[in-house]
């Protein structure tokens, strides 16, 4: 601030260093659409672990709000992560989904991860986008109390679950995980189509292991900070979040944020004023100096002077401000020094009020007002107690006092150099950690690619094996069909042979039967013939004795005649 200023800066020609919040960030981040309503009555609740640290006040509408970056910042972040995608999704034909297969936001917030994952894998991408749009509408906060109550219900369902761990979330569907993170944090940016975080990053944000600020995304606690706030407040990032309200925005080159010279934690100016962290106090390391406006850091409880900090901000940033920005910054300075009781602070307050009135009334352009305030700071520097003391003593300075002043300057320079070295070391460690994280992520992606290739080869070999089995089964089927056809032809042939043999056996049986009957008839004929001969001889002997025809003999002859109608017998007479 006054004599030194926090982190993420480079050495300036001035004796003071530019605070981190004045240094432009990569991607040109600017204040954009609010992720959470600025009205505290409409703002979704903070994550459950931070609810005790959340404070509501009308001043939060000015600075204690979470915003998300513009399209330029989003694309810069995506290019940094190497995950840029098409800005516009392809239009596709919407497929119908039965009511039984549909899932709602409450189902995602309430049901087990594996169950919802299984259902979402069977749903079309259009339905996934519809779910995200429904949650976007709720998080916009423009639908009144009903949507706010719906969000509170969803957040309570998510935050009351004990099964949402890193082990279970790693198996979650991508859209399911984005919705859970958006509900848990209340940040709309996680549903933005142009923002694509890795599955691991989303899980770390949900588990409070990574900053929920899309433009920050640092592992937390940031810079391995061991202060009580960073270690005990889940999800807090000291690089981008306010120590008091636990929120972040993308305001830079501004007095909206005030930082600690020693621990580099940041606080919204409005939050610091509201909680009484900006007040009068004794300046100097010994605490015996003149009273002036000081900022007391809640993280380390140390103080930093504000006049030099405001001067640094205006000297380095004011030339780039437009009329509206300059008016806003003058208003911040007025609020900071409103209760000042020292002469310089009161003069600065009156000067800011005067310039605000001139700008509003059109009596002064922004360029002239900027020159006026910078000139005023130079005049204040001449009115400082040290300058007055030097002016009174003139050039007659005792050697010991001169040595003491030189020693103080050297010690101040050494302290600044040490702070810069510490900051550079922190930045180096942070960059190294980021590179290592990227390397680990690349290794993980490489392993995933190798696993996918192995899985693909395995599936390909399985498909080829199945195709071989199918071809073999087709050949077997053809062979069995051929054998079946041959068996059918053989059966037909055997059936014809059987029929022919059956006809032949019947014919042979009939012939055999007729032959047997004929032989029987011949035997009976022979028998009857012998009997007739015997009777004939007997009759002849009787005729010689004068007897008549025997009736039994006539009957026997008639029977023989019937049995052999076509034969002529020697004893048969023609009629």
TrEMBL record:
MF (Gene Ontology): zinc ion binding
Ranges for domain Zinc finger PHD-type: 241-301
Comp. bias (Basic and acidic residues): 42-58, 559-569
Subcellular locations according to the entry: Nucleus
Entry's transmembrane regions: none
Ranges of biased composition (kind: Polar residues): 1-15
One GO location term (cellular component): nucleus
Protein name: OBERON-like protein
